[in-house]
Amino acid sequence: MNTRDRIFLSRTEVSAxxxxxxxxxxxxxxxxxxxxxxxFGERAVISGTPRDxxxxxxxxxxxxxxxxxxxxGRRLCRELEQTxxxxxxxxxxxxxxxxxxxxxxxxxxxxxxxxxLFTGMEAFTCRQCGHCCRNLDYADQxxxxxxxxxxxxxxxxxxxxxxxxxxxxxxVAYRMWTRAAAGKSGSHCPWLRKIPTQNRWECRIHxxxxxxxxxxxxxxxxxxxxxxxxxxxx
Length: 234
Known about the structure:
Layout: E1 6-9, H1 11-24, H2 29-40, E2 44-47, E3 55-59, E4 65-67, H3 69-83, H4 87-97, E5 102-106, E6 113-118, H5 131-135, H6 144-153, H7 156-159, E7 162-165, E8 173-176, E9 192-194, E10 201-203, H8 211-215, H9 220-226
Antiparallel strand pairs: 1-6, 2-3, 3-4, 5-6, 7-8, 9-10
Helix pairs in contact: 1-3, 2-3, 2-4
């Protein structure tokens, strides 16, 4: 099996991945209500439907309080971190959150216990539609490794479209693809080119493209949530 098709997540990595999932999309109310009993068990009850703006929740011995779907997502994450449920429950949560097969297991080398997540990427085919390059906001997701790689290759043509700066959270951060004037991100990737007479696009730096581009979409769910047609069969 290709390493792209499955990934191993420790408990800490599962929590981080779920936090990231909950924060990068609009509140997933239906999902939150579905996994609530798995995470809270009998420690709390909830009332509401996916159509409701807010839901009502009560932890054991306390009265019902009204909370927003976004706050519900935060509480689910905190509870998951604090209670350390069994790996079987953790796998069931992952299966619903990531819309993928998830199984308890051990890491191949360290034998650490955690969750094997099957991404489904073996069924992915890039359609060269250009959707991810033209419509998704990834300008601030360039890594230091990407930057160093281009510098080692002497790709000044790429580096001149990258801004390197200090941020509040990191000593060094990067932004692509910037316009020379004002250091602002351009409206689209400058390396994307429409193939004449075809409804397809090509990347002119495909062999050295950033890691965020190499990894996309990463999973069937992320493809569905961001409009990528790479898993369509027709």
